[in-house]
Design goal:
The structure is a homodimer of 144-residue chains.
Chain A: H1 3-12, H2 19-28, H3 37-47, H4 53-65, E1 69-73, E2 79-83, E3 89-93, E4 99-102, H5 106-112, E5 120-131
Parallel strand pairs in A: 3-5
Antiparallel strand pairs in A: 1-2, 3-4
Helix pairs in contact in A: 1-2, 2-3, 3-4
Chain B binds a DNA duplex (25 and 25 nucleotides) through helix 2 and helix 4.
DNA sequence: CTCACTGCAAACTATTTGCATCGTA
DNA sequence: TACGATGCAAATAGTTTGCAGTGAG
């Protein structure tokens, strides 16, 4: 999903497009993955120094509302955002905090997780905490 | 895991057992499932009115530290606690907020989620958001 | 030209911490 | 008796809200 596509989605839902929103959408459509609101704020301010954190939060909330983004809440309580797209699981490194996407056979996963008692699933959240290749052994400390 | 077993675990780790901790452990070992810190606090105060919320938070943190409890953070940001035990997934109702445990073939799940790139998994968090049997159709509003 | 969006600062909520006192081991 | 645990209140962190001014459509 490019920035322009996100802008179009925003307009479709009756939201106005301001320079601030354009910049925010540009950041989340960009290369940094799973940013926090604060990280988006810092990056946006490099190009739009007059943007407020409140506007970042508002725009993120709207993105989530129109179904174009997910808000991930990690074990440590940190909230991170990512665009809605291909279904995948998350690998969270307990040492460096990095998040990787793990693409799996989602249909098989859903069939395995099928609830029996009338529960109607809407969204699956699968997160694996552990240590990434670069942090192979669990040293003291840890980011999360 | 009964309250007495939790008390024993606490002692094993060098923690002292106070009446407040005994009451808190009694509540999380009791019938209410996946309580919040606040819910535990209210229940504890029915029997120990001189317990502070800070003590509840401290005790919960210690339980998590010694590996006897998990802290679940839901989509809406609410933190809930449950004792470590059999591995299971969680079903969270978007309408009433109720959480149910879903027992699945965990070995199969782990093999399906096996990361390829040197990531060493420690803990799997599988949560399914949807609507429970009692809230079958998604009305407006929603608790989370 | 209108009203949604903005920045700023204040408000809020959930959790943590500092400190003098208490009570378990 | 010693020192870990406690209650209280203040501090903190992250997010939301109120409001008057601004600018997109």
């Amino acid at each position: 999903m490019t920035r322009l596509e996100l802008v179009r989605k925003f307009r479709q839902h009756g939201y106005k497009i301001t320079p601030q929103r354009r910049a925010i959408l540009g950041v989340i459509a960009g290369p940094i993955s799973h940013p926090t609101a604060e990280e988006i704020y810092e990056l946006v301010r490099e190009r739009m120094p007059d943007t407020s954190l409140a506007t970042v939060y508002n725009t993120l909330r709207e993105l989530v509302t129109i179904g174009e983004a997910y808000e991930l809440i990690l074990d440590c309580g940190v909230r991170r955002y990512e665009l809605t797209g291909t279904k995948h699981a998350h690998l969270v490194c307990l040492q460096c905090g990095r998040i990787q996407d793990l693409f799996v056979n989602w249909a098989e996963l859903e069939s395995l997780l099928c609830p029996q008692d009338g529960f109607r699933p809407v969204r699956y959240d699968v997160t694996i905490y552990g240590y990434c290749a670069d942090c192979a052994s669990p040293p003291e400390g840890g980011l999360c």
